[in-house]
Amino acid sequence: MSKIKKISVALAIIMVFLLQTGISFAQPTDIEGHWAQEKIMAWLEKGWAEIGEDGRFYPDAKITRGEFLYRCID
């Protein structure tokens, strides 16, 4: 494997780890002052919940039973 390929692979791996860290510790923009803010942050830190691509959590959105099972029970 050439030196350039090795460097490219190493940079790609580093970027993936940095991206995952940034997403997992990001605070959603729509939970400030919400009654469940502490619990939402705890679930996000544990990986039990996710922030949407737009940086919002949508704490008052409704979900179906199927969505709940898909996300919470594995």
Structure description:
The protein has helices spanning 3-24, 37-46, 65-72. With 74 residues, the protein is mainly alpha-helical. The chain has one domain (3-72). The longest helix has 22 residues, at 3-24. The chain starts with a helix and ends with a helix.
Quick synopsis:
This protein is mainly alpha-helical.
Which descriptors would you attach to this protein?
74 residues, mainly alpha, 3 helices, 54% helix, elongated
N-to-C CA distance: 39 Å
| Strand content range | under 5%
Which segments are poorly predicted (pLDDT under 50) over 5 or more consecutive residues?
Answer: none
Helix content: 40-55%
Per DSSP, the total helix count is 3
Mean pLDDT: 83
Instruction: Please outline the major beta sheet.
Output: none
What is the tally of beta strands? 0
SSE sequence, one letter per element:
HHH
Rg from C-alpha positions? 17 Å
Structural domain tally? 1
Q: Pairing-aware structural class of the strands and helices?
A: mainly alpha
Principal-axes geometry comes out as: elongated
Secondary-structure topology with pairs:
Blueprint: H1 3-24, H2 37-46, H3 65-72
